[in-house]
Amino acid sequence: MNELNNIAGFIESFESSHADGTFIKLTLGKKALKSSTLNNIYLRPVLIKDEKLLSVVFRHQTSDITKNMSLPEALLLIKEHLGKDFLAASLFTSKEDIQVLFNKKREARIFASKPSLTALQEFDHDKIKRRLIKTEGSIYLQKLGLTTSDGKIIPSMNDKFRQIDKYIEIVDSNLKENFPDKPFAIADMGSGKGYLTFALYDHLVNNLKMEVNITGVEMRQNLVDLCNRTARESGFDGLSFVQGTIGDYKIEKIDMLIALHACDTATDDAIFKGISADAGYIICAPCCQKQIRNEMNPENEMKPILKHGIFMERQAEMLTDGLRALILEKYGYQTKAFEFISTNHTPKNVMIVGRKSPVKPDVAKITGQIHQIKKAFGIEKHYLEELLDKNGVGSGQ
Ligand SMILES: C[S@@+](CC[C@H](N)C(=O)[O-])C[C@H]1O[C@@H](n2cnc3c(N)ncnc32)[C@H](O)[C@@H]1O
Asked: Which end of the chain is more exposed for a tag (fewer CB within 10 A), N or C?
């Protein structure tokens, strides 16, 4: 990593990467004023009617506002915010990454390092496709059966690859909003064959240079053995896997809990572990929603619609995951729920991101909302709520 000393040089690097097509993205973060509702600004290239523009996302606490800008407009925007209301910036190009960090005296430190993102130099639907996971020379991707020996993604694994790449992008953007400056502990619940666990470890340690400890929890012993062997062969010292159920796994304290497609209430077990261990982040993409589907007995105006199995399924999914998000809020997490990937790659594409908030939740109000929703749909219990109540886990008040 090389230290640079010039903010103008940083802006020039952005400008020249935009000109020569190597620009991937630029993020402004670390807001100076904690009370500001604008958390981040993200810029990425877009091609609109053959014109190279920048898509700029203004990420507010509860909403995103997106605008397309010309390069001069984007430069003005960066100059207006950088070092004033945002104290960090990360520029990603396919040639190098450049990070800027301002201290309290507003003095900038600028570092350049090898590129962490790969941009496929083609515009697709007005976007540049990019991947965080590097396939070339990766031992674990081969051993786990995602790539061939020459680093090509096995066609049948393309969807899985996209899911984990997208998942890592979400973790990455959350971490960059508040970059950890101490060793970071992550648990992956229901880690399966470890695709996500390995790729996330690789990205955090080898691209972001973080000090990370990741544990995968999986009930199938053969997968745990395969993953531990592959971690050793890859030299991934901070990555290990344990056999057991999520429910039985003991965690004292954790920084981030992740779960990708942990079946039905296993996702609730995972969220419960995250809340109990006071995880700073709980990021999960649920799988099936049988528990609530079986409980539902709607005695409301939706009844005539919900006689159709398909709508009942979709309603169960919304209720299960919507209530999970509300429960997380009750326990002091700021939450977002969204589709993290197109349904072309998996129908199980809902992602819930919970981030521990310094703001105390209105527990009584949220408890009332959960009660009303359950009542309207004849739901006696939500498995996650019951776990938290039964184990006496205090809410975020
Ligand atoms: C659909 S797979 C997903 C695997 C991995 N997260 C991925 O996306 O590639 C779900 C995994 O969770 C494991 N699993 C399900 N319930 C579990 C539980 N209660 N405790 C531990 N592992 C569980 C299953 O054995 C399976 O490997």
From this structure: N
The beta-strand segments (E) located in the chain are 2-4, 23-31, 38-48, 51-60, 64-69, 86-93, 97-102, 108-113, 118-124, 127-131, 184-189, 212-218, 239-243, 256-260, 281-285, 333-339, 350-356
Residue range 139-390 in CATH 3.40.50.150: yes
Residue ranges per domain, the chain?
2-131, 139-390
Q: Ligand 1 pocket by C-beta < 6 Å: which residues? A: 190-193, 195-196, 217-220, 245-247, 260-263, 266, 269, 287
Handedness of CA 275, 169, 336, 384 (dihedral sign): negative
pLDDT classification of 252: cutoffs 50, 70, 90? confident
pLDDT at 124: 39
Reported as a single tens digit per residue, the pLDDT across 263-286 is 889 999 999 999 999 999 999 999
pLDDT in the model for residue 396: 59
- Taking the CA of residue 285 as reference, the ligand 1 atom at the shortest distance is 8
Question: How far away, in angstroms, is 111 Cα from ligand 1 center?
Answer: 39
**Reported pTM:** 0.71
